[in-house]
Amino acid sequence: MNTIPLGSTDLRVTRLCYGAMRIAGSWNREKVDATAIQNGIRILESAVEAGYTFIDHADIYGDTTCESIHGEALKQHPEWREQLVVATKCGIRRADQPTAGLPGRYDFDADYIKQSLDGSLQRLGLDRIDLYQLHRPDWLADPAAIAEALTAIHAAGKVRYFGVSNFRPSLVSAVQSVLPFPLVSNQVEIHLRRLAVFEDGTLDQCLEKKMTPLAWSPLAQGRLGASLDENAALPKDPADVEVVERLRPILRDIAEAYHVSPLAVVMAWLMRHPSGIIPIVGTTRPEAIKAAAQADTITLDRVSWYRILIAARGRNME
Ligand SMILES: NC(=O)c1ccc[n+]([C@@H]2O[C@H](COP(=O)([O-])OP(=O)(O)OC[C@H]3O[C@@H](n4cnc5c(N)ncnc54)[C@H](OP(=O)(O)O)[C@@H]3O)[C@@H](O)[C@H]2O)c1
Hints:
There is one protein chain. The chain is of the alpha/beta class. The chain has helices at residues 34-49, 65-76, 80-83, 110-124, 143-155, 169-176, 202-209, 238-258, 262-271, 286-293, 302-313; strands at 3-5, 12-14, 17-19, 54-56, 85-90, 92-93, 105-106, 129-134, 159-165, 183-189, 212-216, 278-281. Helices cover 40% and strands 16% of the residues. Strands 3-4-5-8-9-10-11-12 form an eight-stranded parallel barrel, surrounded by four helices. Strands 1-2 form a two-stranded antiparallel sheet. Strands 6-7 form a two-stranded antiparallel sheet. The longest helix has 21 residues, at 238-258. The chain is globular, with a radius of gyration of 19 Å. NADP nicotinamide-adenine-dinucleotide phosphate (NAP) is lined by residues 19-22, 56, 165-166, 187, 216-222, 225, 228-229, 263, 280, 282-285, 288. Residues 19-22, 56, 165-166, 187, 216-222, 225, 228-229, 263, 280, 282-285, 288 line the site of NADP nicotinamide-adenine-dinucleotide phosphate.
């Protein structure tokens, strides 16, 4: 796979990222036993073997166990310390944390950001995170408190670069205005069932600020899986079914024309945008992880790109 700089940084990453959200097989830490840990390590190994060098985590994935699995994998693969660019996130507090009865909530208080980072570093077995992201906008987000935390973390050498996730452009600007260094990425939901970022200013801002958009759930949490495989079960939501049925023949034809898998076409569709979208691949099956990586070998032509968009929208361009 080719590598590219992440935003305006010296981090060189593959054009697809592997997302570790599903590697533990559960969001309940009680269920993540030794077998699940070994399975998670094997999934990460298959991503590295397929050429991915950019891995996305969050402290909440698997209730912290996904980061711990990565830490265990590093013991077996110390070379990954140099080889992989590791991203993680903070700011979502699940219900009953740290004590029973508390509601799920967001938290960008300076102390919580700093404390979360130390937990991630410990679980991942790293001295420094390459990309640290604020996961979801705290409704009480205070740019000054965020800047205080990120500046202290940066000065301590614990993080190389910072990004955000699910931020609207105006909040990116508010935080950026008080930060002494640039935010390099915005991780947002982008896929053929979620096209809002093309029109709401999110991608425009990435173009202007040279931030890299990281596209989460590129298959709409799997709801688009059936558009890649004629034999796959259709999604439950009738609105998804309509899109899947329109996309199926188009993705099949374009995949044949480019000699890649339909999964690679879906990823290549995202990567074609001039902002340099990096899709975060989430499948846990080694063959699909590898098939997605074929996206890096093609550049979709404009007509194919628009055919896919029109099928996803269900209407022609005005
Ligand atoms: N920042 C955020 O708020 C946020 C939110 C969500 C996710 N993320 C990031 O985005 C990453 C990817 O999210 P995601 O896992 O939801 O991505 P996705 O690609 O939309 O969904 C992957 C799911 O689709 C299933 N799937 C069904 N048919 C498939 C097919 N034909 N090919 C491939 N997969 C198929 C996979 O099952 P199999 O495993 O059985 O293939 C897997 O469960 C996460 O790991 C995380 O890093 C970020």
